[in-house]
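INPUT
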Amino acid sequence: MNAPVTVRVQREDFDLAAEVASLSRGRGDIGAVVTFSGLCRDEAGVLGALELEHYPGMAEAEIERICHEAVKRFGLQATTAIHRYGKIMPGENIVLVVTASPHRQAAFDGANFIMDFLKTSAPFWKKEHRADGSTGGWVSAKDADDTARDRWSPKG
Amino acid sequence: MNAPVTVRVQREDFDLAAEVASLSRGRGDIGAVVTFSGLCRDEAGVLGALELEHYPGMAEAEIERICHEAVKRFGLQATTAIHRYGKIMPGENIVLVVTASPHRQAAFDGANFIMDFLKTSAPFWKKEHRADGSTGGWVSAKDADDTARDRWSPKG
Amino acid sequence: MSTVSLVYFSWVRERIGRGEETLELPANVVTVADLLAHLKTLGEQYEAALEHQNVIRAAINQEHVDHGEPIAGAREIALFPPMTGG
Amino acid sequence: MSTVSLVYFSWVRERIGRGEETLELPANVVTVADLLAHLKTLGEQYEAALEHQNVIRAAINQEHVDHGEPIAGAREIALFPPMTGG
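OUTPUT
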């Protein structure tokens, strides 16, 4: 597989349309492009901001491993994953995954797979800052995310 | 459910970023946005263009029915579906589906569901024009699309 | 006799040779299946379009219906092949 | 004795009170589990950070490893809580 894999870990926001365009430009063989954008929710006004810590170097390496695995497993034609770090306000983007494939199901499955593994394997941690100025503490990992990841294993 | 459903059937191309922005602007409750773009493949250079015929009125109505069903079934916060008609060149967009939800799986499932039903229920028909100028004829419906749709039924 | 608007799409339209028409239907045409059988008596082009009757899809007033559906009260009946959008 | 670079993240970092340090490890520290046990002898802040040892994740040279993994040859060992990105 020689499908292009683009991974970036950055403080600044990303441009959805530009990422999709750069992945599909000049190609006539792509039939389906799926994008996933993860956004910071305001939790009904309680949340003031999220602070995202990451492990520089390993964050990029781990997301690349996940993307290459998805390319191989679903026959993707291209994939892009961008994860932000630093302070992120409600309504802002946190993460973007883009997948391209000849037919639609592989693009859906590939993006879904990348998100499930990114959630549980990519070294990022979220700390909450409440709208009232207090610290909400570190977000706890959810069992549901492990369950979502494990559905991709052969033994369910 | 009072989730906004936006459906358009149009000749002109759509702007992915603008559609995502208009669906999520000013909202702090959205955690996940999934987009699906379906593109015209060049079939290794054989295809010159697709011509999309549709049933005006029913095309919009049917896609709206599918979107409302998806909103109800997956608890979507908003959904947009745009389907083009007329002559479409390889590499160009044919269809766009955007779904928003608090958590990622509902957004993935909602977009996947809408595409499966749109393929089999929305009144559109594709005619192929070959790159050599000859007519490739009408595209045949695929059993695989019926199978994909039927997986959403209670009895599998 | 009742008057109904018929619309055709894709290769059904091409084989019949028109996209729409208004027809008077005899009283014994009760269901979509009856309509298909009646149309096939109207000429070769209808026979060619509706030859494989089981693949023909129908909509009444812009909603999908089965061939067993009564057509009474229909303003517009559409006939077309399986859809290939998306 | 061997020298190893340690990096900490999230509440492991906060509780230990630093993000990185270089330590000399005794020869009987063979696995990640041995390392965690050793660190807990270094002071209250390490005890607090590593109290629930089974939830601590480790990476050697930026790849995830289990607690049973030997640390011989590690340039950089990272300790952190379960990840919450995405």
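end of record. The mean pLDDT of chain D is 96.
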